[in-house]
Design a protein that fits this description.
Rossmann fold; five-stranded parallel sheet; about 160 residues; 5 helices; 5 strands; globular; alpha/beta
Length: about 160
Amino acid sequence: MSTTTTITPDTHRKPHVILAEDNADLREMLADVLGDLGTEVEAVADGGRFLVSIASHYDDGKAPEQVDLIVTDINMPVCSGFDILDAIRAAGWKTPAIIVTALRTPLVRTRASKLGAKLLIKPLDLQTFESTVVDLLAHPPESDVEGARDGHASQPRSRH
């Protein structure tokens, strides 16, 4: 892992990342990597807390500008990462997402792709994780992902 790479957004605030992972050791390790990259990390331990975190940022059907990246596992207690990503995409959120999972099936790859999320397979290569985070924060998506509803899709975020 590179310790010299940091994210330099066009704003005066640190990029905000929501991290949802039920494995405590992996959650702590990913939070450390994200923190070393210069992000503010909101780490949650299960799908229920992930849902509460997302709901706390919800703003009139649009992805809030203060959430710059979502990193989530799929299989977690209470609610799956896929279920929550499905819901926020249906609400028009374009927030970049990384799905981390041990599931290596074509169905998982297809579903992640339809959600516009990057898929990383466990065990994670931390350099790949780091470069994916840096890339997504430097180049947020500009187009609607499949599943966004007409009239509810948020506008591309401007970074002041």
